[in-house]
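yo

u said u wanted the structure for the complex thing, so here. seqs first:
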Amino acid sequence: MNIDPKYIQELAELVLRCKRVVETESWDALVFVFDVSEGHMANSGFIYIGEEIIPASARITDDKMALSNKIREFQNAIFEACGHKFVQLLIQMNSAGKIHIDFEFDNPKRWNMGPANYRAMREQLRPVFN
Amino acid sequence: MSDQGLKNLFPQDANLNRGAYKSMENEWEDWTKEGYEVRLTVELDPPGTARPDNIIAEYQVFDKVSGQMVFERDHEFNNQHGEAFERVARKNMQYYRG
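structre next:
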């Protein structure tokens, strides 16, 4: 699949402008999972500071729709490339500027942080970059 | 959490009001019934419009005993028919305790 790398860069830049990210000093890594469906988008995530893990969500204070609009744009680009729309989007970053993006076409609960697996997911979703 | 009265009034698609958005409000109520504190912000987009295109709800759930935030979620609803929302079931809220 051919995906323009500009989307990765643009998504990373938007995540770095989100309120929780901006106001959390000295974070080491972060993860956000976006649930994307027709007419609705939701996200939750975690910010990692050493051993501390802070629940978080992603939204830019002074440009509320910027990140979700970019995710829709990215979703459409993927759709044009392969004919499928993702239902979940995973964004992992660390403070060194590395980013990992993954998306799920079929299972809308692949990276869900539901009550039963909430604690496990905090660790499972912790970004690990080699 | 009780009915939020006038400050919670804005024109919504009827299905959204009865469905996805209502489910989210019910989830908030259940968090409080389970002893958690919910801090939430609901904003309309564009701001000041008579009928918003989007409804943005951000909420944090705090464990009253530890004082720690245990859950944060951001929802964005387009104000149209056919919204979906998967809420946290009340029976599962105990798992978020510290």
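Chain A touches chain B at residues 20, 35, 37-44, 54-59, 64-65, 68, 114-116, 118-119 (CB under 8 Å). The mean pLDDT of chain A is 94.
cya
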